[in-house]
Structures are given as structure tokens and as C-alpha cells.
């Protein structure tokens, strides 16, 4: 039986982390697991309290917020599992989640990463994710399959390759991580799992979805659907992803598309709706890419404060 390491990252959300750990205890029946929780620079160190409540869980503390990728990478380096299940702390387990994912990975050694179907926690009959389409490298856009559809099992037989795993819940083969490298940390927030998928593919592995496995996601509780932080990183990292992964001719098409069509449209919309702060963050995301290379160590998150 393969060992599975469950990894989650906490940033100033102790209640969500507690509820997550309780859901693992309540619904997981896969015996060969270890759990690692990374406290990623939270203002208050809750690990001493957590350790007494969850003595079988390993806790790692970072005094600095390392971002989504950096926090996960701390745990990946310490993980003992053959498979690593990276899950947001604003998710809750369902019965059979790990078994379903492990079965697929065991049956096909070519799979490097796989996600379950993701449902909205507050509306558990509504799908958030049942796979991704491939990225259009000319526009930097793709589509989330099944999003906002009622879950009637319509995707449950669609186990197979998909465009990308979902960062809220993804199981990876340790061998794939060894060959592809750790999650890219320069993204800090958003697009890092998509960039990672491209690296895993280049290492010779496939990216899959297993809709029979499911998890419930409390979407946007950590950042907020219209936050300035999200605006900055979604713009910055969309451009960065294309710079790092698109062929040269697609990059040229993307630059023209983004600067001539997307930028004027978005800025006009922000100004007409009175969202000048969002317009500033959008422009900062663009400027970051003019000032930094594709392997920059400048994360840029301080610029959003």
C-alpha cells in the first residue's frame, strides 16, 4: 500500500485549519497517511495549541509568508509519502477521496498529478471543477469544465487526462516531483499549479482528473473574489505564465492581444465602475513583467499593500 502525505497550508485561518483536520479525521478511511500542516507566517503561532489537539499531525512553522507554492514546498521537502495530496485548508474531505485517487495513480505510472472533482461547500450539489481545458497560449485563457453546473454525475465517468489540476486539491506522484522540481515559488499566488503542470508534462508525465473522487471547497475565503491582492497576482501571473510556457509566436500574439484589447477594456471598466484601486493593481501586474525576468526572485507581493 502506497503511503500518502496530506499537506495543507495555513495563513491566519486557524478555524478553517481545525475544521479541515476534523474533516480528515471524520471521513478518511485510507490507513497509510501522514498529515503535515504548514503555518505560513501567520501573525499568531497556533502550533503549540494544535499540537496538543492533533498529536499525530506534523506541524511546520515559517516566520515569513512564503506564498502558496513556498508554503507547500516546505512540507514537500519533509514528506515521506509515495503520493502527496496538496489541499487547501478551506476544503473538507469526503468518504473515499484518497482511495479513489490512489487507485488511479496505482493503475497508471504515467500519471504525475491528479485532482478530484471539486464542489462548493456551501452548495454541495454545484460543481466548481471537473477538469480544465488546455490553455490557449495566444490569449492566456482556458476554461474550467463543469463550473457552476448541478452535479448529477455527468462527469463521473470522465476519468482521464485534463488540461491542469486544481490548486485546491491535487495528488502528485513523488517521482514526478523529483523529475519536474518543486512548485515554482515566484508566482506566489495563482497560476503556480498550472506552471507546475507544464513542468510535470515536460518531465514525461500526464495530468489527470478523477471525478469519482470529490472534495468540498469554501471558495475565496482566504483572499476574496474582488480583492486587490487577487487582482494584482491574476494579472501579473497570467502574463508570467505565458512568458514561461508559450512558444515565441504565441507570446507575440498574446502581447498584442493583452496590450491592445485586454488592457484598455479592463482599465475602462474599472474607471467606469469607480474601481481605481483595482486599475492600479492591474497596471502594477503588467509593470512587474516589464521589470523582472521569468525566473525572478522578486515575488512582488509587498507592492499590493
Highest CATH level, the class of the largest domain? Alpha Beta
Strand content: 15-25%
What spatial form do the alpha-carbon principal axes imply? globular
Which whole number gives the mean pLDDT? 94
* Helical fraction: 25-40%
User: What name is given to the CATH topology of the largest domain?
Assistant: Spore Coat Polysaccharide Biosynthesis Protein SpsA, Chain A
Task: List how many beta strands DSSP finds.
Answer: 10
N-to-C order of helices and strands? EHEHEHEEHEEEEHHEHHH
Radius of gyration: 19 Å
N-end to C-end Cα span: 47 Å
Number of domains: 2
- CATH superfamily placement of the largest domain: Spore Coat Polysaccharide Biosynthesis Protein SpsA, Chain A
Structural class: alpha/beta
In the CATH hierarchy, the architecture of the largest domain is: Alpha-Beta Complex
Number of helices: 9
The major sheet is characterized as: 10 strands, mixed
Low-confidence stretches: none
Q: Layout of SSEs?
A:
Blueprint: E1 4-10, H1 14-27, E2 33-40, H2 47-53, E3 58-62, H3 67-78, E4 83-87, E5 91-92, H4 97-107, E6 111-120, E7 127-129, E8 160-161, E9 169-173, H5 174-180, H6 192-202, E10 206-217, H7 228-245, H8 248-272, H9 276-291
Parallel strand pairs: 1-2, 1-4, 2-3, 6-10
Antiparallel strand pairs: 4-9, 5-10, 6-7, 6-9, 8-10
Helix pairs in contact: 5-6, 6-7, 7-9, 8-9
